[in-house]
């Protein structure tokens, strides 16, 4: 297990490096273009405390970290782990822990970058806690990251064939919606409306069910996928 943990920490470090390059490169390019177009834009940075500007810059890479980690999970980390003799069960368990931690970091980082300064430290972090560190929001980030990792593992295992079910499901859904609209089948459309309303009103439960399903699919990929040449 210690070997697996060290390997996972190295994977997080690699993902953070790429996330930092993307985030800081993007920020630098954005501010350069913005300054060239309107030099007075820098004056807006003085409307909030220096520590908040510094925190926003420091935490910026965490907004991309879970995405980069999920991408590398399917395309590189899993393959390397199996070749190095890491237990599939250990890899699966530690990966879930990593994704939970990354979801927490992403939720907090998103809150820092999106919540507007209201003149009070207490109100600022209360807004982050209520809107971004809720169980529903963290579960949403977790399911998004795990879904991306599963997609990457599917590409790793099935190559281009992994896109066939995605295209088929999208095409089938489009045909069903088009047919329902053309025939005026309001009852059929109402089913989707009711499902959407239920999901909105029970977001935490719905995301929990989706998360459990994705964990099961992720486990199957980890335990059943052989190393590809």
Q: What can you see in these coordinates?
A:
By secondary structure, this protein is an all-alpha fold. It has one domain (2-224). Helix content is 83%, strand content 0%. It has 9 helices and no strands. The chain has helices at residues 2-37, 50-59, 62-83, 88-114, 121-131, 135-158, 163-183, 186-201, 203-224. Helix 1 runs antiparallel to helix 3. The longest helix has 36 residues, at 2-37. It is globular and about 55 Å long. The two termini are 26 Å apart. The mean pLDDT is 85.
Rg, Cα atoms, Å: 21 Å
Number of DSSP helical runs: 9
**Intertermini distance:** 26 Å
The succession of helices and strands, N to C, reads: HHHHHHHHH
Short summary:
The chain is mainly alpha-helical.
Question: What keywords describe this structure?
Answer:
229 residues, membrane, transmembrane
Blueprint of the fold:
Elements: H1 2-37, H2 50-59, H3 62-83, H4 88-114, H5 121-131, H6 135-158, H7 163-183, H8 186-201, H9 203-224
Helix pairs in contact: 1-3, 1-4, 3-4, 3-6, 4-6, 4-9, 6-9
